[in-house]
Specification:
The structure is a single chain. By secondary structure, this protein is an alpha/beta fold. It folds into two domains: 166 residues, Thiolase/Chalcone synthase (Peroxisomal Thiolase, Chain A, domain 1); 130 residues, Peroxisomal Thiolase, Chain A, domain 1. It contains nine helices and eleven strands. It has a five-stranded mixed beta sheet with strand order 7-11-10-8-9. Helix 1 crosses helix 3 and helix 6 packs across helix 7. The chain is globular and about 55 Å long.
């Protein structure tokens, strides 16, 4: 499944630009309202069926695009909390809720902050962590064109702009009656000097270091990872980086380490991409169609930030195949 379609925007040759827009939001809705709408739907889905009083004590940490990116919506607070209450009837904890305008790695950075919040505030029942972004607007498209990153007939090494939001609930321990508990066992972060537009040759050092930290924290060798989920979205740079990083860590012969790419169906989702990857891995494990119960999630921001997370399902995991 994918939602790619020719849009109302046109390139310099007059040809429609292919986008990946959410059909439940009207095309004319502005980028700030789109971000709020996307985030509201994701958070509402994450807390569905939960006790309202418990939810009201949970903070919300949201990863967003950096302020200097063309077409970005970096600040979603306090409008996000107002939107959630007005549109979805959801009240959240306000003093600890905030957004992190850090681009593609923002969601995993927010997970690290949420983990600290839970450790320092034992009375918090949990923390909601989300990522939201939309690149389906004029300024974002112009920015991608200027950077040579937009997929067009004359540029096959580009991305399809998309939009998304994803939200997960982080708690200290499995919730009662949880049929398939999932554990965040490791996080890792690093910086890559050889960015997309840098002259320095890419060696995959930054991503490899982020993976190494997440795997070390989770006490798991890369050989035991069942599959990877990454934010690579069509550019050769991203696929080369993933290959180089794996070669730095994998020293035992293995036929393959499956790689899942949400961008194949959603396009480039920016600050939402790492949480989309995490959510996809979680859903796949819970429905039994993941290759196994150990997933390595990663994100690479164009500015050089690298992030990784190790997600583990139950040891009794049984693969059932695609739903």
């Amino acid at each position: 499944m994918n939602r790619f379609q020719r849009s109302r925007y046109r390139d310099n040759d007059g040809e429609p630009i292919v986008l990946s827009e959410l059909s439940t939001l009207a095309p004319e809705v502005g980028r700030a309202e789109r971000a709020l709408g996307l985030l509201g739907m994701a958070v509402a889905s994450a807390v569905r069926g939960m006790d309202e009083a418990e939810v009201a004590h949970m903070p919300l940490l949201v990863g967003t695009a950096p302020a200097d990116r063309a077409g970005s919506v970096p600040e979603v607070f306090p409008r996000a909390l107002e939107h959630l209450h007005r549109t979805h009837g959801i009240r959240l904890e306000t003093t600890l809720s905030r957004s992190l305008a850090l681009g593609n790695t923002a969601g995993l950075r927010a997970l690290a902050d949420a983990r600290l919040l839970l450790a320092r505030n034992p009375r918090l029942p949990g923390c909601l962590v989300a990522g939201v972004d939309t690149l389906t607007n004029g300024p974002s498209l112009e920015g991608l064109v200027r950077q040579g990153r937009l997929l067009r007939p004359d540029n096959s090494d580009g991305v399809i702009p998309g939009e998304a939001a994803a939200c997960v609930l982080l708690t200290r321990r499995a919730r009662p009656n949880e049929a398939c508990p999932l554990w965040l066992t490791g996080l890792g972060f690093a910086q890559e000097k050889a960015t997309l537009h840098a002259e320095e040759p890419l060696r995959g050092v930054g991503l490899a270091q982020a993976w190494r930290e997440a795997l070390a924290e989770g006490a798991m060798p890369v050989e035991e990872v069942d599959f990877r989920v990454a934010d690579a979205s069509g550019e050769g740079y991203g696929f080369k980086e993933l290959s180089l990083a794996l070669s730095r860590l994998l020293h035992t012969r293995r036929e393959s380490v499956p790689l899942w790419l949400p961008a194949e169906s959603l396009g480039e989702t920016g600050a939402a991409s790492s949480m989309v990857a995490l959510a996809w891995a979680a859903v796949a494990m819970r429905h039994g169609y993941a290759p196994g119960p150990r997933a390595l999630i990663s994100a690479s921001d164009v500015a050089g930030d690298r992030a990784a997370a190790l997600l583990r399902g139950p040891t009794s995991y049984t693969r059932r195949g695609m739903p």
